[in-house]
Specification:
Low-confidence stretches: none
Structural class: mainly beta
Largest sheet: 4 strands, antiparallel
């Protein structure tokens, strides 16, 4: 299973338990962040493409650390 998510104007392919480097979200370390701009979801061949986003889909992540670029 994977999803294509728009985060701060950039598209990321995300999977479960994956670490991502994304633009700073303004949340504290350890905070949970939800991304609702899900453009595509592929659940083992069952593909849902948004128009422009997939209704009801969201990606949840935890802020691990803040790093400089």
């Amino acid at each position: 299973m994977y999803a294509i998510v728009d985060i701060a104007g950039k598209q990321f392919k995300v999977t479960q338990d994956q670490y991502l480097y994304v633009p700073k979200q303004g949340e504290d370390v350890g905070a949970s962040v939800e991304f609702e701009n899900v453009l595509l979801v592929d659940n083992d061949g069952d593909v849902k493409v948004g128009t422009p986003i997939v209704s009801g889909a969201k990606v949840t992540a935890e802020v691990q650390e803040h790093v400089k670029g």
